[in-house]
Design goal:
The complex is a heterodimer. Chain A is mainly α. Helix content of chain A is 74%, strand content 0%. Chain A has 9 helices and no strands. The longest helix of chain A has 24 residues. Chain B is α+β, with helices and mostly antiparallel strands. Chain B has 3 domains: 72 residues, no CATH class; 86 residues, no CATH class; 129 residues, Immunoglobulin-like, CATH 2.60.40. Helix content of chain B is 50%, strand content 18%. In chain B, the strands form 2 sheets. Chain B has a 6-stranded mixed β-sheet with strand order 5-4-8-9-2-10, with no helix packed on it. In chain B, strands 1, 3, 6, 7 and 11 form a 5-stranded mixed β-sheet that branches. Classes of the chains: A mainly alpha, B alpha+beta. At the A-B interface, helix 2, helix 4, helix 5, helix 6 and helix 7 of A face helix 1, helix 2, helix 4, helix 5 and strand 4 of B.
């Protein structure tokens, strides 16, 4: 697929109509379109994080803005996911160039500061215990067993056994426990914020 | 982790952008990688790559901290330990009376020992102080007695029987020799006493805590004693924490060296920001020379007129071994974003001796509690 360069035009702003048109491209059902939009944004976030971007959220939004603008301008996009990926690569390249022109330390400074918390390990443990308590017994048992193994070999066989016992494919189990872990991380993060 | 080639990387990225299932696999793999790092399962090279590529990303260090806590919470060893502990507790509960009694006796013994030790230490310190400040008094009294005795002797004894002047004094006329040799006047007494007192203060008193620090005078007396190395170990036993403040001015590591004494439990860095802007909230990260983050923190800074410096919160010295470091500071702008404020480099040296903490190249020592 060839791309015409989708550069940021300074006079373009994201409007409600433009965003609605983008959502409509994802799915005719608005709720489903919203879910797909969140999924795309998460992919972009992770893509930029894994590329080492200093501001992955800004880059992700910039990518979506550009794609939305192209759609609004009437471009026919046949493979939306592929198109988004292409725009994301472009945004990342431009971002790298900009960063190289600025001082490396400034960009590094921004990317280093996540929550800025110097959280105490004991507080983290306390919050995690509390958050695990919010899970149902079954979920807690599953996630505990899924992550308990210390050695890689034990982990692989243990997870397979767990999936068999639950009667689900290993990939399904992996996705489910990943989502539960995300919830736990968010819960712990919120709990740690109360200590500040 | 930066291991794949560009083509491999694009292949994987294209795949997970198009296939949600592949994306979920990537996310799960990311978790496994974080867990492996948290449990120490990565090789040295893998660890270095992970720290370079992942820990520097927003939220990376938080996720690692969570992974460590999570590993501790779900590991088999922990569960086995809990089971064992439960059994022990049940046994203990059956014999709870005996255990309580033993615990109570042990607690009383410990309390008595601690109190006794505290009393002994306090008595020893008081004795030291008493000796310290009574020395000049004793010398002065002794001189006064000598002076009095000599004066009486000079007025009642036959001058021929007085001890002869020294060889040096023999050079001088006899009538003036006696006047200079013997402290007969009150003025001479006062001068002698003053000079002795001054000598004592200069030689034996602790060095002063710099009044420019603005320390509460009630605390200053305690700090005065702490500055003297002879008293520091005793006072350290009574004082919960010692925090040293170091000013940073330069971006060059070789220009700022911080020497931290072994008994300093935390340091605060006084920064002179490169911009005139003032912020209510700051974030800072300290990292090693090879870009490994050590710790990060944020704090609120009350805006004060004519106040240009930034003082970081205490950073525990357990995080900081000897080496080169850099600190990056950002301030929270009105729109909520964080903007660069300052960055500094410094060399930190952990002093194993009993010297005071000091920083070179700047305004000298600071010691604050």
């Amino acid at each position: 697929m060839g791309f015409t360069k989708t550069a940021a035009k300074k006079d373009w702003v994201l409007t409600k109509e433009g965003f609605d048109r983008f959502l409509a491209t994802l799915d005719t059902d608005r709720d489903k379109a919203g879910e797909k939009y969140e999924n795309i944004r998460l992919k972009l976030l992770k893509y930029f994080q894994w590329c080492g971007s200093v501001a992955p959220d800004i880059d992700a939004d910039e990518t979506i803005n550009r794609v939305t603008r192209r759609i609004e301008e009437g471009a026919n996009v046949y493979n939306l996911a592929g198109y988004i990926y292409g725009v994301a690569k472009l945004v990342h390249t431009e971002s790298l160039k900009r960063r190289n022109q600025q001082e490396m330390e400034s960009g590094y400074l921004v990317e280093l500061l996540s929550t800025g918390r110097d959280s105490n390990a004991a507080q983290c443990q306390e919050c995690l215990k509390r958050c695990l308590g919010y899970l149902s017994d079954e979920d807690r048992e599953v996630i505990t067993e899924y992550y308990q193994y210390e050695k890689f070999e034990d982990r692989t066989t243990g997870r397979k056994r767990l999936a068999e016992r639950l009667g689900v494919p290993l990939t399904t189990l992996r996705v489910k426990t990943y989502r539960q872990r995300l919830h736990l991380e968010a819960c712990v993060g919120e709990c740690l914020g109360r200590y500040e | 982790m930066g291991v794949c080639s560009q083509a491999e990387r694009e292949q994987i990225e294209s795949e997970y952008f198009e296939d949600d299932h592949a994306f979920q696999e990537m996310l799960a793999a990311e978790n496994d990688l974080i867990d492996a790092y948290a449990r120490g399962e990565l090789t040295r090279d893998e660890r270095r790559r992970f720290e370079k590529h992942f820990l520097t990303s927003p939220g990376g260090s938080d996720r690692v901290q969570f992974a460590r806590a999570f590993a501790g919470a779900v590991s088999g060893d922990v569960r086995a330990h809990e089971t064992k502990l439960r059994a022990t507790l049940l046994d203990g509960f059956r014999e709870w009376r005996g255990a309580l009694e033993r615990a109570a006796i042990a607690a009383v013994v410990v309390l008595v020992v601690v109190l006794s030790w505290q009393l002994m230490e306090r008595r020893r310190m008081n004795n030291e102080l008493r000796v310290e400040y009574s020395e000049p008094g004793k010398q002065i009294e002794s001189l006064q007695r000598d002076a009095e005795r000599t004066r009486i002797t000079a007025t009642t004894t036959d001058p021929e029987n007085l001890p002869g002047p020294s060889d040096e004094l023999k050079q001088r006329p006899t009538n003036t020799t006696r006047a200079t040799h013997l402290p007969t006047s009150k003025t001479n007494n006062r001068e002698l006493l003053t000079s002795i007192g001054r000598e004592h203060r200069e030689e034996d008193s602790p060095r002063s805590v710099d009044p420019r620090l603005g320390i509460d005078p009630r605390l200053r007396s305690v700090l005065q004693l702490a500055v003297d190395d002879r008293r520091t170990p005793s006072l350290m036993a009574l004082t919960p924490a010692w925090i040293a403040v170091f000013p940073l001015r330069s971006r060059r590591t070789d220009e700022t060296t911080i020497t931290v004494a072994r008994w300093v439990t935390a340091i605060r860095l006084q920064l002179d920001p490169e911009t005139a802007a003032k912020y209510r909230e700051y974030r800072a990260v300290i990292e090693t020379a090879d870009r490994r983050p050590i710790t990060s923190f944020h704090w609120a800074e009350p805006l004060q007129p004519n106040h240009n410096g930034i003082l970081t919160p205490p950073v525990p010295t357990v995080y900081l071994s000897s080496g080169d470091y850099a600190i990056f500071v950002t301030g929270k702008d009105r729109d909520g974003s964080f903007v660069r404020v300052a960055e500094y480099s410094f060399r930190l040296v952990r002093d194993s001796g009993r010297s005071k903490s000091r920083s070179h190249g700047d305004t000298g020592d600071s010691l604050k509690n």
